[in-house]
């Protein structure tokens, strides 16, 4: 079967968050994802993540309310978001996260991704969503 299209890459990911401004600060200050556009009437903020976007939707906003209760310790809306980073210097990444009071969930480990195997660190955003910071193939 032939399809009339080919998938190129992930365009964007939408995360429902409890406190929109707190999450904007986390993704902007900690991960370096600047605000690209705000759509306050929807409770939606688009953040630039390299060639992709991470969209944050406040659970109390027009769009976020559609999803019901926010994710909690007993359940998640998304397993994790993987952000490809360069360079991958574990000590520098851990030190950077520590400046924000964030510790990775464990030491770097090799994981498979779109570009093959590479080292990854995992951490949590303010809503408990897991973020993977992944380096290039070894």
Automatic annotation (TrEMBL):
Protein source organism: Pseudoxanthomonas putridarboris
PROSITE patterns: VOC
Protein name according to UniProt: VOC family protein
Cited InterPro entries: Glyas_Bleomycin-R_OHBP_Dase (IPR029068), Glyas_Fos-R_dOase_dom (IPR004360), GlyoxalaseI/FosfomycinResist (IPR050383), VOC_core (IPR037523)
Pfam short name (any one): Glyoxalase
Source domain of life: Bacteria
VOC domain location: 9-136
């Amino acid at each position: 079967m032939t399809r009339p299209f080919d998938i190129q890459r992930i365009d964007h990911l939408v995360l429902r968050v409890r406190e929109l401004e707190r999450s904007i600060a986390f993704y902007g200050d900690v991960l370096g994802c600047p605000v690209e556009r705000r759509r306050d009437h929807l409770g939606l903020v688009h953040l630039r993540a390299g060639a992709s976007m991470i969209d944050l939707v406040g659970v109390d906003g027009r769009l976020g309310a559609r999803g019901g209760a926010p994710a909690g310790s007993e359940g998640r809306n998304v397993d994790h978001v993987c952000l490809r980073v360069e360079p991958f210097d574990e000590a520098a990444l851990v030190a950077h996260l520590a400046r924000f009071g964030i510790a990775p969930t464990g030491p770097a480990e090799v994981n498979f991704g779109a570009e093959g195997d590479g080292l990854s660190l995992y951490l949590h955003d303010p809503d408990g969503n897991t973020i993977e910071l992944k380096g290039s193939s070894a």
